[in-house]
Amino acid sequence: MFARRRKHFGTPADKATYATLHTASLASPYLREGLTPVAAGRASKHLRDLLGTAAIAICDSSGVLAWDGVGGPYESNHRVDAKAIAAMTLRSGRTAVLGAHDVACGDPQCPIRTAVVAPIVTEDRVVAVLVAYSPRSSAALVRATEEVARWVSGQVELAELNKERTRAMEAELRALRAQISPHFIYNALAAIASFVRTDPERARELLLEFADFSRYALRRGGEFTTLSDELRNVERYLVLEQARFGERLTVSLLIAPEVLSVAIPFLVVQPLVENAVRHGLEGTTGVGQITIRAMDRGSEAEISVEDDGSGSDPEVIRAALSGESGSDSIGLGNVDARLRQVYGDAYGLVVETAVEAGTKVSFRVPKYSSGVHASA
User: Fold this and answer.
1) Which of 298, 278, 296, 303 has its CA nearest to residue 288?
2) CA–CA separation, 2 vs 5, rounded Å?
3) Might you give the EC number(s) for this enzyme (predicted)?
4) Contact between 74 and 107 (Cβ < 8 Å)
5) CA gap 290, 142 in Å, rounded
6) pLDDT tier at 1 (50, 70, 90 boundaries)?
7) Beta strand pairing call for 300-307 and 114-122
C-alpha cells in the first residue's frame, strides 16, 4: 500500500518543479567557485538540462569558457563561432536572438539552427554570456534563457561575495597577528630571560613553547582550525604567562570532549584568553582566576573565557566591538567581526562585564557549517 502511494505522489507540475530545482542545485556549487573554465565546464551540463536545448556555450571576453551539447563535427562547426556570436551581447548587455543565417553551419543534419544569447551580469557589468542553441527559437526559450542567465548571474555574484569575505577574513587575521604579537612577544621573551641563569632547563622548555606558539599563530595554513588545536595553543600561551605571573595566575578548563573536533575560525579563542589575562591581572597584585569552558549545546558548541578581574565599563566594550581605535581590549572587535563574517550576525561575541565585577566573553559556533573545514 505504501509503495503504491509513493509511486503516484505529486502532480506533474510538482515533479517538474522538483526536477528543475534539483538540476539547479547540481549546478550551483560549481558556479559558486566563479566563472572559471573548470567551474563553467562542470556547470554547463546542468544548465543545458535546465533549458533542454541541443547545446549551450558560456563565453566571456577571452573566448569560450564552456560548451556542452552536440559533439563531433557539429561542435567544431559552432564552438569556434561562439565567441563572435557572444561579442554583441558582451558589449551591449542585451539579449540577442539569432536565426539560421547567423548560426546554421550548412549541414542539414546539424540540430543547431538558432541561438539565444543572454547576458550574465554582476554589479551592473556584463561578465559573460549564456548561449542556448536549438533547432528552432521561441518566445518561451528566450524567456527561459534569460531567467537561467539571471540565476547564473546571482550565483556568480555570490561567488564574488565569498571571495570578498575570504579576503576580508585574511586581512582581519593579518591585523590580529600584528596586534597580538608585539605585546605578547616582549612579555614572553622577558619571562624566558628571567630563567636563563637561575633555571636554564625551564628557560629551554619555555623557549620551545614560545616557538610552537609562534609557529601556530603565524602559520600560513587555512582560515579554520579545530577547537582542540586552538586550545592547545591557548595552553602554550598560558604556560608562558604563568612563567611571568607565577602563582598569581590560576586557570581552570572545563572542556566537553564532544566539541574538540569542531572546526572554528583560526585564532578566535587565544585573543580572548590574552584579553582576560591582561585585564584580569595586569595592574593588580592579587591572584587572578581564568576559566575557559567549551560546552556541547546540541547542534552548537559554546565557548567562554571568564576572569575575576576588575571588569570594564560596558561602553568601553562596545567601543572594542565596534573597532574604535580608542579601545585597548585586545582582539575583541577582530574576533567578533570574523565570527559574524563566517556564521552570521547571530554568532558574534557576547560580553558580560561591569566595573569591579570581572568579565565573561562567550560565543557559539555551529558544529557543522558550510565552507568551514579545519585545514591540516
Assistant:
1) 278
2) 5
3) 2.7.13.3
4) yes
5) 65
6) very low
7) unpaired
